[in-house]
Design a protein that fits this description.
CATH superfamily of the largest domain: Tetratricopeptide repeat domain
CATH architecture of the largest domain: Alpha Horseshoe
Largest sheet: 9 strands, antiparallel
Structural class: alpha+beta
Radius of gyration: 41 Å
Strand content: 5-15%
Oligomer: single chain
Mean pLDDT: 81
Length: 588
């Protein structure tokens, strides 16, 4: 430091020396930047690393604002490349605090710093930095608002997302197509569908061959419940031969049907399947049937329904097809449909309807004997029993015998019924040889079940008296827990069979879906259950006596019991109103 008495020449030399140091520091910063950016490998890379460390040590002592800002910016960019984001943020902050660079350079650094914050998922800091950049008295750029909108989106601040993007149009800034797609995605996620419409119309002018623009515009219309505009847009796209995915073609057909053009919807769907633009599967044939049904095209409707039933094996579709054929008095076709529907065991809820329809086809084809048995079967199960009884009365059939009233035996059978061929041949599981070759029992293996159940400690007679109310509560809980009933109620006991009968039970509902345990109700999956089975009827004590007798007979015949017993409780009564249940006793 000099004083008033310092010679002028000395002052000049000192100033010159300081200027040289300043030039040297700037040159040094440029030298380090060159080394950092140009020498990625080998010994030169090692030298660059050392230079970076030296520059980092010296930056605190640089007094010149420009030199300090430049050095900080170079170091920040270096650490971004190294993915050391904390250090990069530190040096960006150092460079900005020195205030040695122009507004243009500072704005660029703020943008870079904002992107580092975005990489670190510090969205609040990114938004703050971007707002600083926008506050600089320079003409903003589209990128600034896109980055700001992205930061707000990450914080789920959707109003601010829209406000940031709206500034682009307000300030008259021009977006290129890539930026328009970015803004479109952000607007869409924020629910600003009107702005999406505007962007997509502009994109269609710039990129008329981009199929995504057409379909996204239709999606935006649908989000606003503008189904007519969506239909018009997709129809025009189809005319222009814009590519459609299978889902998009189905959507177009649905929109046509919705706007009272089911014939056009059916034609579109049929053509798309014929040309293999969409799969000719059961789902699409069922939809095709619905369209032809709405269009009142009976032959085409029936053909589509028949194909849907064949592809899916869906009993409901077979039954509906049989009803259509009945209305057309196509008795032979109806009969073949019912035989196809009943080729495999039916879900219990379909057994009654199936037997009625089968019986009608049999009666109309002159097979009164089998028709009578089918109608009797239908009277034994809730849902179709009244209709079946009317048909029996119509044909003047003999009343059901005691044996016929015990259980369903026929072509259309359920989980606890016997299958019988149309010629009357009884189809049963191959009987297993017992110790006494003169004794045979009916044997089957029940598939694995998903059970929703509760445990009870009481005699069978007492539990049977409460079962109806308990099952109602259980069914409500099952539905609330995410499941649905998929079979008849079951009472299950396990362990050695007491001489007086079981008193510990699980009251269980077979279920589908994904039910969860709730309150006293639990969920478990059973293994396949090999059992001997028989039909029982009577009150609680009588059922217990019959179960003990059946178990004893099994053991006498040489069967080893597995220790599990099930009473299956279908909605079935005999002619006198007594409930009939199936007893299943596990065997090894």
């Amino acid at each position: 430091m000099w004083t008033e008495t310092t010679p002028t020449s000395c002052r000049y030399l000192c100033c010159l020396f300081a200027g040289m140091l300043l030039v040297s520091s700037v040159a040094l910063a440029q030298q380090y930047r060159s080394k950092i950016l140009i020498t990625p490998e080998g010994e030169l890379s090692k030298g660059a690393s050392l230079s970076t460390e030296e520059l980092e040590k010296q930056i605190g002592s640089i007094q010149d604002a420009y030199g300090k800002s430049s050095a900080g910016r170079h170091l920040a960019r270096h650490y971004v490349e190294q993915k050391q984001y904390d250090k990069a943020i530190e040096f960006y902050r150092t460079a900005l605090a020195a205030q040695g660079l122009s507004d243009v350079a500072n704005r660029e650094m703020l943008r870079e710093l904002a992107q580092v914050y975005l990489l670190q998922k510090d969205y609040s800091a990114a938004a703050g930095v971007l707002q600083q950049a926008l506050n600089i008295d320079l003409v903003p750029e589209v990128t600034d608002f896109l980055l700001l909108a992205q930061a707000h989106y990450r914080m789920k601040q959707y109003v601010q997302v829209v406000a940031a993007l709206d500034q682009i149009a307000t300030l008259g800034l021009v977006m290129n197509p890539r930026q328009m797609h970015q803004a479109l995605a952000l607007y869409y996620q924020a629910g600003a569908y009107a702005q999406c419409e505007d962007l997509l119309r502009r994109l269609l002018q710039l990129e008329p061959d981009n199929a995504d623009n057409w379909h996204q515009l239709a999606s935006v219309y649908l989000q606003q419940n503008k189904k007519r505009q969506a239909l018009d847009e997709l129809t025009l796209a189809r005319e222009k031969r814009v590519p459609f995915s299978a889902d998009q073609l189905v959507l177009l057909a649905d929109l046509q049907a919705f706007h009272k053009n089911p014939y056009g919807a059916a034609e579109l769907l049929q053509q798309a399947m014929d040309q293999q633009e969409i799969p000719g599967d059961a789902t699409n044939y069922r939809k095709l049937f619905e369209y032809w049904f709405l269009a009142r095209e009976e032959q085409k409707m029936q053909a589509a329904l028949s194909r849907a039933a064949q592809l899916s094996g869906d009993t409901e579709l077979y039954l509906y097809l049989a009803q259509l054929q009945m209305e057309q008095r196509a008795w032979q076709a109806m009969h073949q449909t019912m035989l196809a529907a009943c080729a495999e065991q039916l879900a219990d809820r379909y057994v009654g309807r199936a037997n009625v329809l089968l019986g009608i086809s049999q009666l109309k084809l002159g097979d009164a004997v089998n028709a009578r048995r089918s109608f009797i079967n239908a009277t034994l199960i809730a849902g179709a029993n009244t209709q079946a009884a009317q048909w029996l009365e119509f044909m003047g059939a003999e009343p059901a015998t005691r044996k016929e009233s015990r259980r369903i035996v026929g072509v259309c059978y359920g989980s606890i019924d016997k299958q019988q061929a149309e010629d009357g041949t009884l189809i049963v599981d191959a009987p297993e040889a017992a110790a006494d070759p003169g004794v045979e029992f009916q044997i089957k293996t029940v598939p694995s079940l998903r059970l929703f159940y509760a445990s009870y400690e009481m005699p069978l007679a007492e539990l049977a008296a409460q079962a109806k109310s308990q099952v109602v509560r259980m069914g409500v809980s099952l539905v609330k827990s995410g499941g649905s009933v998929d079979g008849p109620v079951q009472l299950i006991s396990q362990g050695d069979l007491p001489a007086q009968g079981d008193s510990t039970w699980q009251l269980a509902l077979p279920s589908s879906g994904s039910p969860r345990a709730s309150g006293r109700f639990r969920v478990r999956t059973t293994e396949a259950f090999k059992c001997a089975y028989t039909a029982l009827q009577g009150a609680g004590p009588e059922l217990a006596e019959q179960a003990l007798a059946f178990a004893g007979a099994l053991q006498e015949a040489g069967y080893s019991l597995s220790g599990e017993r099930r009473l299956v409780l279908p909605s079935r009564e005999n002619g006198s109103g007594t409930i009939i249940v199936e007893l299943q006793i596990g065997i090894q």
